[in-house]
Amino acid sequence: MGLFDKPKKDKQPVSSASCPHCNMILDPIPQRKTKCRVCGNDIYVRADPFNKQKIYYLKHEDALSVDVVKNLPISEKEYYKTEKELAQRFGKPPMPGDVVWGILNNHLVTAMQRKDWQDMKMLYWQQARLLFESGQDFFRLLQKSAKCELNRYQATNIHRVEILTTGACSKCQSLQGKIFTIKQALETMPIPVKDCENIFCRCTYLPVVE
């Protein structure tokens, strides 16, 4: 380093540099995705979504939560406020996945109070997508998202809906263009298709204008 060169600022870990699966100390500290030498599980390295000097060593589901923060309606102030509240509740710093999930739940409560079916639909969909990408059971939340869509149409005096399918799933394609009353759709929930060949069903309802 030259006399007038500025020293590089090291990034400081916000969580201990330990395996998120077995808690073994990581030495050397990984700079990118690696496998734990003790338990063999994958470790994902992510910067804090708002403070890039803070580094997390995460499980897959928590890494996904960090990755999607920029695409969610989450502000820096809200993120750190929720992180602090959860730390007090848990008695330890929460993982990013817990923070993101807590914020989405808070937004859901607000949307429910306003009876904002569109916001509820999108929030349930975002939660379902996070679960899907982390290999967890997501169908119940995806179905709630579809129910919110139907309730939104019902609230605007739409009485019938038509199914628009996407992808190449044969089970979904058999529903293409089928028309249901709102009551029928709420009772039978034809979409999302539980055993969709694409796994995460993207079929949706279109309003039928009388």
What's the layout of helices and strands?
Blueprint: E1 12-13, E2 34-35, E3 42-47, E4 54-58, H1 60-68, H2 76-90, H3 96-114, H4 117-133, H5 139-155, E5 160-164, H6 170-173, E6 179-181, H7 182-188, E7 204-208
Parallel strand pairs: 1-4
Antiparallel strand pairs: 2-3, 3-4, 5-6, 5-7
Describe the structure.
There is one protein chain. The protein is α+β, with helices and mostly antiparallel strands and 210 residues long. It has helices at residues 60-68, 76-90, 96-114, 117-133, 139-155, 170-173, 182-188; strands spanning 12-13, 34-35, 42-47, 54-58, 160-164, 179-181, 204-208. A hairpin with a 6-residue loop joins strand 2 and strand 3 (42-47). The longest helix is centred in the middle third of the chain and has 19 residues, at 96-114. The protein is elongated and about 65 Å long. Mean pLDDT is 89; it is low at 1-14.
